[in-house]
Amino acid sequence: MKKSILLTLSITLTLISGFTFSEEPATGLDRGIGGVESLRGDTELETTRPADPMKKVPRDQVDIESSYVFQPPLIPHHIRHYEVSLNANKCLSCHSWTKAKQMGATKISVTHFINRNDEVLADVSPRRYFCLQCHVTQADAKPLVGNSFERVKSLQ
Amino acid sequence: MKWIINALKGFWGILKSPSKAAVGIVLFMGFAGGLMFWGAFNTGMEATNTEEFCSGCHAPIVAEIQETIHYANRSGVRAICSDCHVPHAWTDKIVRKVQASKELFAYFVTQTINTPEKFKERRAHLAEREWARMKKNDSLECRNCHNFEFMDFSEQSPRSVRQHSTALANGENTCVDCHKGIAHNLPDMHKVEGWQ
Fold it and tell me: Are A131 and A84 within 8 A, CB to CB?
């Protein structure tokens, strides 16, 4: 009998103390993020903070140098509403071998004519058709996290 | 009853006799009639010049256009359907019918484009017709807003200047030769020259 009373008492006490501990008022630092600031600032987890302004892609910029060998070159101009779909490929209307010279554009690389069996085709290989899978525009966006990346020696 | 006839007779008398008053009245009636006609005509034109009107039959197109520069841009100046297209030759009656029962009417008229599949099939043909029309009038609709004379090449990007100062300036090409799909998604372009 005595034992069971003791047991119940100790359990109740542990429960109560547990309760009081978790009910301790949140400190100024703890707002659901444990006071840790991250890339989304010090906004609480449950609240949605206002989005950053959209980055603007310049109409034209000087060619952007590559950082490593075989890097897909970056697009140095805007591509608003340039359609690349089953129906049409606006990129190729300037960058195809037939149009490049006349439009003053860079020709697509020979690698784009090779299919996955290493066969050379007469036209752009289907696996290279969707240009924006590898080539992207650049906006003036600062890196969010600092890094020590350096261009490979051969391209410096 | 009699007084009406008498009054009409009197009025006719005034019109018949060559007096200053008669000329004034005839002129006035012509003017009023013209005004009324002009009003009706304008209401008709205004009704056919709205996006809602076109969307009765061209709903997919009106949805697509919202991503393009002529719908929203930094200066807020817009080009609407009728700025680039001659609206179909609508009579006032058709306009009112379309407004009254859009779906029903559109169903009977738009047999060629009333399903996404049919529109997809037909689209290349319709686009070809528009290109041909604009090629023939040297892109008159574009030039109503974009005047080549006043294009400031120092403000344009090098890519634009390169083409505008050569192929456009010498009259070899017109706007729609290079700016296909400026306001719409493109149809199948594989057979169009310069595209693949």
Answer: yes
* Chain A interface residues (partner B, CB cutoff 8 A): 59-60, 77, 80-81, 83, 85-90, 92-93, 96, 98-99, 103-104, 123-124
Average pLDDT over all residues of chain A? 83
Which whole number is the average pLDDT over A66-88? Answer: 94
* A62 and A127 belong to one structural domain: yes
Q: Does A128 fall in a domain?
A: yes
Q: Is residue A46 domain-shared with residue A80, that is, in the same domain?
A: no
Contacts of B186 in chain A (CB under 8 A): 83, 85, 87-88
Q: Is the pLDDT of residue B110 over 70?
A: no
My answer on whether A44 and A57 are in the same domain is: no
Whether residue A64 sits in one domain with residue A45? no
Q: Tell me: do A102 and A136 sit in the same domain.
A: yes
pLDDT of residue A20: 46
Out of B157, B182, B185, closest to residue A60 by CB:
B157
Selecting from B162, B189, B196 the residue whose C-beta is nearest the C-beta of A104 gives: B162
CA distances from A51 to A48, A127, A144, B96 (A): 9, 35, 15, 45
Tell me if A149 is assigned to some domain: no
Answer whether 0.90 is exceeded by the pTM.
Answer: no
CB A32 within 8 A of CB A118: no
ipTM of the complex: 0.71
Q: Are the C-beta atoms of residues A99 and A93 closer than 8 Å to each other? A: yes
- A21 band by pLDDT with thresholds 50, 70 and 90: very low
The shortest CB-CB distance from B185 to any of A83, A89, A99 is to A83
Question: A108, A60 in Cβ contact below 8 A?
Answer: no
Residue of B nearest to A129 (CA): B196
**What is the structure's pLDDT at A142?**
86
